[in-house]
Amino acid sequence: MATEEREPLTRVPTHVAIIMDGNGRWAKAHGLPRVAGHRAGTENIRRILEACVDFGVKILTIYAFSTENWSRPPEEVESLMRLFGEVIDRETKRLKAQGVQIRHIGSLDRIPEHLKHKMLAAIEQTKDNDRLILNVAFNYGGRAEIVHAIRRMMADGLAPEQVTEEVVSSYLYTAGLPDPDLVIRTAGEMRLSNFLIWQSAYAEYYSTPVYWPDFDREELYKALVAYSQRERRYGRVLDQ
Ligand code: IPE
Ligand code: IPE
Ligand code: MG
């Protein structure tokens, strides 16, 4: 559908978070090895990022590699690390020119040295951009994030009464960013898989059977329409 034929969105989420799932199943459906699915998946990131800019989304968080994904076969983990490095090499310049600020959420431990350098360089090069924040959850786990936050609070010597919800939020990797309004999961599963478990407490959840490499601008638009029709009550009653 051409952009001008679409119904305008009545309410656009500020922060969209996506669990990019289904690369393996996409590859299988095409008779290809899993790594081909991951390659197609990384190519899709640019398409969705551009659509987010056009639709007016301000923050996009993508789940690229979880702390649990280290348990996959070593060859697959290696391919994912390599592909991620290739994406940074290929995309950073363009993202910089488009006004995208790249951030990382997750732990840098265990990430191969050369990849860590690429990540830190991309973050540094785009830090002054403000058109859209792209948060890449890589070696990210929600529970690990909370443990990391608790350890830092203790190391800072916080007294129990100083630990409020706001303070906990400020110790998470997403400190300073608003919580996600919409969490999208591709490939049909109905679970969070350890993604933003604190931050998405009141996010709207949208799951589609479409595999990530096939999740295009139209599919994103459908998710945004669904979001605009949700009623966010935060525990209150209507017309309060
Ligand atoms: C998501 O696709 C990518 C990562 C988790 C890195 P999967 O690799 O999980 O694809 P499926 O779930 O096996 O189809
Ligand atoms: C979640 O997908 C992690 C990412 C998309 C990076 P998984 O495929 O790892 O999740 P599970 O194993 O189905 O819960
Ligand atoms: Mg999966």
Architecture blueprint of SSEs:
Elements: E1 15-19, H1 23-29, H2 34-55, E2 59-66, H3 74-97, E3 100-105, H4 113-125, E4 132-140, H5 142-155, H6 165-170, E5 182-185, E6 204-207, H7 217-228
Parallel strand pairs: 1-2, 1-5, 2-4, 3-4, 5-6
Helix pairs in contact: 1-2, 2-3, 3-4
Bound molecules: 3-methylbut-3-enyl trihydrogen diphosphate (IPE) (2 copies) and magnesium ion.
The site of one 3-methylbut-3-enyl trihydrogen diphosphate has 11 residues, from β2.
Concise synopsis of the structure shown:
This protein is α/β, with parallel strands linked by helices. It has helices at residues 23-29, 34-55, 74-97, 113-125, 142-155, 165-170, 217-228; strands spanning 15-19, 59-66, 100-105, 132-140, 182-185, 204-207. Helix content is 41%, strand content 15%.
